[in-house]
């Protein structure tokens, strides 16, 4: 499982970096992403689900969200 902390980035950069990370995953590979920007918290999980990733979102506190992703078996 690969970790990716994007809490220091704001949209659109957080979203762009998230998309790059998702594209780099091999089928079945997992990624854990931490987000804090409200736009990224909303957009990244939606984008990942539309791309076929298994997605689990866990709110850690008032601003930080942990997103667990598994790449689709193509």
TrEMBL record:
One of its GO terms (molecular function) is transferase activity. Keywords: Transferase. Residues 4-59 form the UPF0033 domain. It comes from the Bacteria. Belongs to the sulfur carrier protein TusA family. This is Sulfurtransferase TusA. It comes from Ferrimonas sediminum.
């Amino acid at each position: 499982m690969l970790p990716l902390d994007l809490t220091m980035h704001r949209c659109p950069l957080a979203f762009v970096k998230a998309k790059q990370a998702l594209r780099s995953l091999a089928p079945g590979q997992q990624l854990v992403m931490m987000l804090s920007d409200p736009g990224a918290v909303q957009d990244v999980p939606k984008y990942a689900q539309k791309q076929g990733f298994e997605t689990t979102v866990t709110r850690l506190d008032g601003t930080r969200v942990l997103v667990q992703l598994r790449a689709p078996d193509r």
